[in-house]
Structure formats: C-alpha cells, structure tokens
Amino acid sequence: QEQEQRSLLEAQISSLSETAATKATxxxxxxxxxxxxxEELKSKEGVLSQEQNDRASSETQINALQEQLKAASSKLxxxxxxxxxxxxxxEELKSKxxxIAQEQEQRSLLEAQISSLSETAATKATxxxxxxxxxxxxxEELKSKEG
Length: 147
Hints:
Low-confidence stretches: none
Distance between the termini: 210 Å
Strand content: under 5%
Helix content: over 70%
Largest sheet: none
C-alpha cells in the first residue's frame, strides 16, 4: 500500500514537474513577448513625441501665417483706399483738364479778337492820319483863300 501511494505520488510529482516545466517555458515566452512589446512601446513613444513636436511646429507655422494673412488683409484694405483716392484724383484731373481746355479755347478767341481789333485800330489810325493831313491841307487852302 505504501508503495502504491509512493507510485501515485511519484506520478503526481512527475506530472507536476512536466506542468511546471511547461509553465516555465510559457512564462519565459510571455516575458520575451513583454520585453518586445515594451521595446515597441518605447519606439511608439518616440514616434509619438516626434509627431507631437511636428504638430506643435505646424501650429506655430499656422499662427505665423494667420498673422501674415491679417497683415496682408490690412494692406489690401489700405490698397483699396489708396486706389479709390487715386481714382478720385484722376476724375478731378479730367475735370481740371476740361476747364483748362475751355480756358485755352477762350484765350485763343480773345487773342483772335485782340489781333482783329489791333488790325482795325491800325487801319483807323492810318485813316485818322490821312484825315488830319486832308484837314491840314484844307486849312492851308482856307488861309490862302482868306488872304
């Protein structure tokens, strides 16, 4: 009976030893898998950190570009105002050009009138001199007749 119990115990010990060996192998495999997963995790953390840095850099660039966009929008509005002022001044110039053209036309007319009047005056002066000369002759004739 003792031998039978001993045989049973030896069988149980053998079975448990095999199970323990299997469990040890499984444990080592699981530890190896854990180590691999930890390495992958470290690698992923590095990638994640780089991605976060890239994202922060992109946000900084976006903010800078938005500031540039605001400045450009402001300049565009200024440009529009300046363009409007230029258009107004061009209109004023056109108006002034029209006034200048009218003034020049009137001046030309006045110059023509002055020239015409100068010619008439010269003619009248010549006629006046001739009449004075005739008057002088007639006065001479009159004196001679009186005498």
